[in-house]
Amino acid sequence: MLGPGWAQELRLYISDASLTGEIVDLPCDLWDGSICLGDRRLENVIPIPLDYRGRIEVRLEQTNGLTITGTSLRVELCGEPK
Question: Which terminus of the chain is more solvent-facing, meaning fewer CB atoms within 10 Å of its CB: N or C?
Answer without folding.
Answer: N
